[in-house]
Amino acid sequence: MADGTTADVSLREARSVLRACRLCPRCCGADRLSGQKGFCGAGDAPRVFRRGPHHGEEPPLSGTRGSGTVFFSRCTLACLYCQNFPWSQEGRGADWPPGRLAETLRELRRAGCHNWNMVSPTPWLPWIVEALEAAKRDGPGLPVVYNTSGFERPQVLRALAGTVDVYLTDLRYARAASAAEGSGFGGYAETAREALRVMWAQAGPLRTDADGIATGGTICRLLVLPNRADEAVANLEWIAATVGTELAVSVMAQYVPAHRAAATPSWERPVTREEYGRVCDAAERLGFDNGWIQDFGRRTPDELVGYRMREDT
Predict the structure, then answer these.
(1) Tens digit of each residue's pLDDT (9 = 90 or more) over 25-38
(2) Do 165 and 144 touch, CB atoms closer than 8 A?
(3) How far apart are CA 141 and CA 102, in angstroms?
(4) Is residue 266 within 8 Å of residue 231, measured between CB atoms?
(5) What is the DSSP letter of 18?
(6) 286 with 240: CB under 8 angstroms?
(7) Nearest to 249 by CA among 197, 211, 191, 294
(8) How many Å apart are CA 166 and CA 159, to the nearest integer?
(9) 3-state secondary structure at position 261
(10) What is the spatial distance between Cα 274 and Cα 270, in angstroms, rounded to a whole number?
């Protein structure tokens, strides 16, 4: 895939894309169809850890019947505090045969879910696009939620025009040192900010139906990190100046020192009330009034995740 303004390979053709994988900003070029694996470790068949109605997303996504979520294994980042590391980094889950992803989307539709929510989709985009098209051929399409860390290539996002309805993205760091230590890529801030600009240009502000359920638009999550509240404030300031305060933001207090963070200095503690308050105050000061502020006390894994899903093994 070239570095032009549009993708030069269709995401509907897995075989051609995966001969030299450049789906994420690492552009590792691994020939996944010949058994090579790049940074994320993804192979030549989609791997899924969980799927089912999820009630722990932002209110316009979860609604009353849940978000139809598919948690894909593997991730293009390596966050030292990742609560999902058993499948995002260790790769737990099951490889799905052709057709199973499309059938899962049909099951989620029959279950009454409000949307199709693809979590960490980037390594598996060719199969996802094909499955979405197949599911739409024999029933009504649901709004498609692209649930991402924000570590995305603009070229790939542009190729998703007409496929994705709601972008649910992250903006985690403002400094290269934090991004390199926390997630293994020093250029995250610049990459995620440019990705957010593309998402906003493509999807625009959050739109909901008469029941308050999202039908399209962009939501940006800001997870406040210990000793790095100033970076969340800097990102809010950047959003206000560059994208605008019409963007729906979700300010989150749920950081816990999971995975390797518990043994890593400056990452080994939860966020303090004072740190979180600084970010919330900044959101108010800058004029963000479309979004959500998470309750400070929501910290345990059960409260944060609350999955009602099945694990695929």
Answers:
(1) 999 999 999 999 99
(2) yes
(3) 12
(4) no
(5) G
(6) yes
(7) 294
(8) 15
(9) helix
(10) 12
Domain 14-311 grouped into CATH 3.40.50.720: no
Any idea how long the chain is? 313
Query: Which tens digits make up the pLDDT trace of 124-166?
Result: 999 999 999 999 999 999 999 999 999 999 999 999 999 999 9
Residue with tokens 């316009």, as numbered in its chain:
60
Q: Which amino acid is residue 167, in one-letter code? A: Y
Tokens of 143: 């709004």
pTM of the predicted model, to two decimals? 0.92
Q: Determine the pLDDT at residue 302.
A: 35
The Cα–Cα gap between 289 and 124 comes to: 34
Write down the domain spans for the chain: 14-311
CB neighbourhood size of 193 (10 A): 17
Half-sphere exposure of 78 (CA within 13 A, CB side): 12
Cα distance between residue 127 and residue 72, in whole Å: 12
